[in-house]
Amino acid sequence: MINSSYDFIMRSLMFYPDCSLFALIDGLQYERYFGDEIQHEQGVAEPFLNSWPDSRLAFAGPWLFRLNNSVSHREKLKQLAEAIPSVSWIISSESLESLIVHFKSFLNLQLPDGRCALFRFYDPRILAEVEFLLDETHYVQLINRTTFNQRIVKYLNDILGETTSLGGGDHKEPVSPPVDLLPENSTSLN
């Protein structure tokens, strides 16, 4: 029996040998739980907020870990995921860098009144509800990649001990969503 989202994602990864395991982390929750900030490791742990002036807040923002060759990070993030909602597991054939570029385009939202806001989709409590927060076009764009024909198989969250699947179930074949309709680096909630 599968006991956690981590166990489920590790089992699922066996069926996708051409993919990598990633963890989308809420940096603030990580820092609060472990008492230390996430340390940047090229190709392993990368912040989304990596350019000035946002880089001053990188520790508290979203981070993406590539976990294929890092057992110590996997164990630590498993512990974090089991303690507090802060980790979303991702299986993808994309590189760490291309996933960050893709997800960063969804960080800044333009509200109907013209103001900008940070869309905390990297918080598993938000990610579990994102299908209901975004219209279908924006939802498909968030979870799928058209340019690289990416497979995002599962986003898994530790919310109420349940595993949440986004994207309508297992995608054994690459999904081809509509052409990107959003301007680069922005998303609208209109």
Description:
Strand 5 (108-110) and strand 6 form a beta hairpin. It is built from seven helices and eight strands, in the order αβαββαβαββαααββ. The strands form two sheets. It has a five-stranded antiparallel β-sheet with strand order 2-3-1-4-7, with helices on both faces. The termini are far apart. The protein has one domain (5-188). The protein has 190 residues and is an alpha+beta fold. The model is unreliable at 145-190 (pLDDT under 50).
The domain tally reads 1
Number of strands: 8
Share of residues in strands: 15-25%
Radius of gyration computed on alpha carbons: 16 Å
Output the structural class: alpha+beta
Helix amount: 25-40%
Mean pLDDT: 71
What labels would you give this structure?
about 190 residues, alpha+beta, 5-stranded antiparallel β-sheet, 3-stranded mixed β-sheet, 7 helices, disordered C terminus
Write the layout of secondary structure elements.
Elements: H1 5-13, E1 20-26, H2 27-34, E2 45-47, E3 62-66, H3 71-83, E4 87-92, H4 96-104, E5 108-110, E6 116-118, H5 124-127, H6 130-133, H7 136-143, E7 155-157, E8 187-188
Parallel strand pairs: 5-8
Antiparallel strand pairs: 1-3, 1-4, 2-3, 4-7, 5-6
Short characterization:
This protein is α+β, with helices and mostly antiparallel strands. The protein is built from 7 helices and 8 strands.
